[in-house]
Amino acid sequence: MNLSSLMQTPKSPTSRYTILDRETVGLKSVLTRWESLLAMLLVAVFAGGSALLPNFFDLYNLLDATQNFSEKALIALPMALLIICREIDISVAGTLALSSVAMGLAKGAGLPPALLPVAGIATGAACGLLNGVLVTRFCLPSIVVTIGTVSLFRGLASVVLGDKAFTGYPPLMSDWGQGYFWGIVPREFVVLIVFALLFAFVLHATSWGRRIYAIGNNPDAARFSGIPVDRYRLALFVLTGAMAGLSAFLLTGRIGSTRPNIATGWELDVITMVILGGVSIAGGAGSVGGVMLAVLTMGLVTYGLALANIPGIYMTITVGMLLLVTIALPRLLRGKQARK
Amino acid sequence: MSAFATLMKQREPLLALMVVVLVVLVGLRAPVFLSVDSLSNLVTDSTLLVMLALTQMLVIVTRGIDLSVAANLALSGMAAAMLGAHFPGLPLALIVLAAAVAGLLLGLVNGWLIGVLELPPIVITLGTMSVYRGMVFVLSGGAWVSAHHMPKDFIAFPLTRLLGLPHLVWIAAATVLAVWFIARNTRFGRDLYAIGNAPHCAGYIGIASGRRLLWTYGLSGLVAGLCGYLWVARYAVAYTEIAYGFEFTVIAACVIGGVSIAGGVGSVGGALLGALFLSVIGNALPVLQVSPFWQSALTGLVILVAVIINARGSKRRSRQILPLHPSTSTAATARSAA
User: Fold this and answer.
1) Which of A221, A297, B122, B167 lies at a C-alpha separation of 20 to 30 Å from B230?
2) In this structure, which topology does domain B44-299 adopt according to CATH?
3) CA B280, CA B295: separation in Å to the nearest integer?
4) Cα–Cα distance between B68 and B49 in angstroms, integer?
C-alpha cells in the first residue's frame, strides 16, 4: 500500500453522509451573510452622508469622528466573545467608572503616570474576576449577577467621588486619549484596530476561538468533550473587565476628568453594537468582523446626525430602530414558520 | 420550632422576616423611622416599584425580560403630563386612561415582536427602550413640564387620601390582588408558568404561547403606562430622563424576591417583598444619615447576597458521566506501570 495507490482510489463514499470540510461558498451565501448586509448598510450610510452633507466626506472629520465610538468598541469586542459564550456583562459601564476612579486615586497617591493605565486595567480585571467567580462558582445567571455588580461598582465609584471630580491627569493620559499618530489618525482608533485584529485572530483562527463557539452552541457537549467551560467563562469575564479598564484609561484621558456620571448607559450601547453586529443572543454565532462593521455603521450615523445638527437623542431612536428592523426584517421576510 | 424551620425554608417568609428585621434594626438606630408618618411614607414610596415588579415578575416567569418599562413609563408619563398641560379642562380619568392605553400599546409592540415573531426578548426590549426614550424627547421637544403647567387635581390625585390611605397605595393594593389572582387562579397565569418551565411542552399541549406572550408584555406596558401618570403626578415634573435606569431596579426587586431569571419560578409575594426590601433600604439611608452615595453600592450588595441565598440548593453539581471502577482503574495503572 503505497501513496500512489491511495491517490488513485476512486472516491467511493465509505459513509452514507458527505461531510464537507467547509461550506461551499456561493454568491448567494456570501450576499445573504449578516456581515454583507451590514457592509451594504455601511456603504449606503456613507454614500448618503457624502451626498447630502457638505462636510461629511472629509478625511480629518471622519478620522476625528472615530473617537466617539472607539472606547465603546473596545468593550464591545470582549462582550461579543461573552455573548457568543451565552453570557452577558451588564456591569461594564460600572467597571469603567470604578477603573477611572482607581486611576484618579492612584494619581492622587503620587504614582508615576506610567502606572496609571496599569491601575485602571487591574481594577477592571478585578471587577471582571468578581463577576466571573460569582457566575462560575455559584452557578448564577450572568445577567442577574451583573445587574447587581453594576450598582455595586458604580455605587463604590460615587462613594469615593462624592460630589467632586478627579481632574488634573498627567499629559500621558491626554496623549493617549486625545493624541494622534502621524498627526492625523487618533491614537484611540489605532488601539481599537490593533485590538480588533487581535480579537479576530483569537476568535477565528485559534482553537481557543473554536472552543468559545463550542461552549456557546452547547455548553454541556463542550464540557463533555473536555473543554474547561467554567475556566473559559471566568477568563472572558476577566478579559471584559480588563478591556473596560483600558477603555476607562482612554476615556478619562480624552475628557480629562472622572465624574460620577462617567459612561452612563454605555452598557446598552455596547450590547447594541454587538447584537447589531450579528452576534446571536442565544450564543454560538457571530464574528468580530460583523461587530466592527456595526461599530463603524453606528459611528458613521452618529457623525452624520451630528453634522446635520440633529440632537443626540435622535441617535438613540435611530439605533433602536436599526436594531429592531435588522432583527425583525429577516424574520418577517421568512414568513410564518412552523413552531419547532 | 420545626414548623418555624419549615416556614423559614420557604423563600417568602424568610424574605418577610428580613424586611421586618431590617425595619426594626433601622428603628433601633433611629426611632423616628418607626413612626407612623415615616412608615406610611415608606409604603407610599414603594408603590410604583411594587406595581412594576409584579408585572415584570410575570414577564420573567415566561423566560422573558422587559427592559423597556422605564422608558415606557417616561413616554406615557410625558404624554399624560402634556395632555394635562395643554387641555386643563380634560377630566382626570380620561388622562389616566390615556396614559394606561399608551403604555398598553407600547407594551403590545414588544409583545407582538416577541410573542408573534418569536424574537429574543432581551434584544427587542433593548431596542424599544432606546426608541421609547428617544420619543419622549421628540414628543416634548426636550422641554420640561413642571408643576405650574399641570392642573391642580392632576398633581393632587396620587397623594389624596381615601379612608386614610393615599390613592397610590389603593392602586398598588388593587394591582397586587389582580396580579395575584391572575398568577394563581386564571388559565392565562398558569399558562405563563407552563411556558416558562418548558416552552416546547407548552406548545405540545396546545398553549397559544404567542398570544400569551403578547398580552403578558401588554400587561407590563399597561402597568408601566399607569405608573407613568402616577410618577409624573407624584413628583410634579416630567422630563426626558425620568425613571432613567429604573428598569434595573425593577428587575433587581424581582431577583431579590426569588423570581428565577431562567423562567417558570416566581410568586407575587416574592416580587412584592423584594420591592419592599429595596424601598426600605432606600428610605433608611437618609434616616441613618448615611451618605446617599452609598445607596447604589448597598443595593448592589443586597442583590448579590439575595441571589446567592436564593441559588443555594439549586446549585448544579458537576456530573460524573461514566461510573468509576476502582478495580479496573487500579489494574490499568498497574499495567501501565509494568
Assistant:
1) B122
2) ABC transporter involved in vitamin B12 uptake, BtuC (1.10.3470)
3) 11
4) 14
Domain boundaries defined on chain B: 44-299
Nearest chain A residue to B240 by CA: give it.
A313
Residue type for position A53: L
Inter-chain touch A331–B119, beta carbons under 8 Å: yes
Q: Which three cell numbers stand for residue A262?
A: 462617567
Mutate to test the interface with A, among B113, B116, B131, B285 (most CBs of A within 10 A): B131
d(Cα B338, Cα B190) in Å, to the nearest integer? 64
Please report the ipTM that was assigned to this predicted complex: 0.79
Mutate to test the interface with A, among B114, B123, B246, B316 (most CBs of A within 10 A): B123
Segments in chain A below pLDDT 70: 1-15, 335-340
> Residues with Cβ < 8 Å from A238, sequence gap 6 or more?
A125, A128, A129, A132
Strands, DSSP E only, in B200-250?
Answer: 237-238
Quick check: A323 and B127 CB within 8 A?
A: yes
Is A327 in contact with B127 (Cβ distance < 8 A)?
yes
Residue with cell 420619543: B135
**Interatomic CA distance for residues B239 and B81, integer angstroms:** 10
CA B108 to chain A, closest CA, distance in angstroms equals 15
> Could you read off the pLDDT of A101-132 as tens digits, one per residue?
999 999 888 888 888 899 999 999 999 999 99
